[in-house]
Every structure is written in structure tokens, then in C-alpha cells.
């Protein structure tokens, strides 16, 4: 089942200046159509409190809500999909557990990883890190523009139709050269939610990806 995947994914994080709910509200008010709720510090009750509030915001603005990991919460809130950060996750089993209607995203640091998760049926992939980021610690080698160019060329040669999003330290000036590699889109967190004006920062990315 082919899913709609947005080109610009906004990822919420634990930051002191804005709650996850506030981040989602600001991004949606700016026109966001894809919110990935990423919180690995709360218990299920707290997670569901956040998710239910963000789901209402997303519903009001027509945005897709994706939750990072926590697939055990499927069916307990209005969640459209899950992004699994475990590089070794078995996506065949996860698909069996979640069903065809749920959007499933996977993460990869390597080209071989992209090929594997594509074969296992993910709907899209976050591929990175592009550059140094403090948002999500990652010891994998930085891909840089060349890493995306190589990966997209190989996927094309193998006729693998997988929406790939660059993630990890992406800034506004990186958008054009990254999109020129043939990737599908961009996943952004710190460059937006740690900006002085979150709404303006989101709009800058959105306009760049038009």
C-alpha cells in the first residue's frame, strides 16, 4: 500500500524552551503537514497525554502524526504511523504487528541498511547523519553530500523506489544541495525548534522545499 509521505518532516524533541505540544502547535500553525513526536523520556501515561494533545493539533491542521518507536501504543491514540530508530529492527515483523494501514519509517546509517529496510517494506527511510548533530547522538560516519549522491545512484540502479530523507544536522543552506542528490526530502529538528523564531524557521525550510 503506497503511503503519502511529506517532503519536510518536523521532529519534536525534549528541549527547555518549548514542550513537545508547543513545538507541534507552532509547526502546524506554520503549515507543517508532518509531525514526528520523538520522546524517549516519559512513561506511557505521559506519552499518551502528549500524543493525544498533539493528535488533536494535527487533526485541526491536517497534519500526519508519526511517533518515534513506542509501537505498543498503536491503537491507543490517533497515530498515523511510527518511525523506528533501531537500525536492526525486523520490519517484516513490525508490519505484521501494526498492519498495512499504518505508515512505518525506518532509520539507516548505511546504503546496505537502506536496501535491507526497503526490502522489508518500510514506507520511507531517514538516512543520516548528514552532518554533526547534538539532537540525537550518533557515532556513525557523516554522510555528507557525496554519501547521498552515491546511495541515491545505487538505489536508482537497483530500481528501489524508497522515499529517502536526509537527517542529522541539516540546515537551511544544505537543502538545495541535498535535494540535488535525488533524495525525497528532509527531516529537521534543531534547526527549527532551537531557532529564535520557530515559525519563521519552519517557513524558511518549507519555502526552500517547494
TrEMBL record:
> Which amino acid positions bind 2-[(2R,5Z)-2-carboxy-4-methylthiazol-5(2H)-ylidene]ethyl phosphate, per UniProt?
133-135, 169
* Root EC class: transferase
UniProt xrefs under InterPro entries: Aldolase_TIM, ThiamineP_synth_sf, ThiamineP_synth_TenI, TMP_synthase
Query: Which residues are recorded as binding 4-amino-2-methyl-5-(diphosphooxymethyl)pyrimidine?
Result: 107, 136
Keywords (A to Z) from UniProt: Magnesium, Metal-binding, Thiamine biosynthesis, Transferase
Which GO terms of type biological process are on file?
thiamine biosynthetic process; thiamine diphosphate biosynthetic process
Function in brief: Condenses 4-methyl-5-(beta-hydroxyethyl)thiazole monophosphate (THZ-P) and 2-methyl-4-amino-5-hydroxymethyl pyrimidine pyrophosphate (HMP-PP) to form thiamine monophosphate (TMP).
Q: What is this protein called?
A: Thiamine-phosphate synthase
The organism is Pedobacter steynii
Q: Gene that codes for this?
A: thiE
Amino acid at each position: 500500500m503506497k503511503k503519502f509521505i511529506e517532503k519536510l518532516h518536523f521532529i519534536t524533541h525534549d528541549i527547555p524552551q518549548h514542550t513537545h505540544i508547543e513545538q507541534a502547535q507552532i509547526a502546524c500553525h506554520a503549515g507543517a503537514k508532518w509531525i514526528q513526536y520523538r520522546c524517549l523520556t516519559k512513561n506511557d501515561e505521559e506519552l499518551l497525554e502528549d500524543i493525544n494533545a498533539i493528535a488533536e493539533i494535527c487533526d485541526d491542521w491536517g497534519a500526519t502524526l508519526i511517533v518515534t518507536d513506542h509501537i505498543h501504543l498503536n491503537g491507543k491514540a490517533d497515530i498515523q504511523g511510527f518511525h523506528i530508530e533501531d537500525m536492526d529492527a525486523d520490519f517484516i515483523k513490525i508490519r505484521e504487528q501494526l498492519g498495512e494501514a499504518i505508515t512505518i519509517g525506518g532509520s539507516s546509517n548505511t546504503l546496505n541498511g537502506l536496501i535491507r529496510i526497503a526490502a522489508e517494506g518500510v514506507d520511507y527511510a531517514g538516512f543520516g547523519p548528514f552532518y554533526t548533530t547534538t539532537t540525537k547522538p550518533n557515532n556513525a560516519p557523516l554522510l555528507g553530500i557525496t554519501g547521498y549522491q552515491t546511495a541515491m545512484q545505487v538505489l536508482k540502479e537497483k530500481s528501489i523506489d524508497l522515499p529517502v530523507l536526509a537527517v542529522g544536522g541539516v540546515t537551511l543552506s544544505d537543502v538545495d544541495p541535498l535535494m540535488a542528490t535525488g533524495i525525497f526530502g528532509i527531516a529537521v529538528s534543531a534547526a527549527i525548534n532551537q531557532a529564535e523564531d520557530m515559525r519563521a524557521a519552519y517557513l524558511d525550510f518549507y519555502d526552500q522545499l517547494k
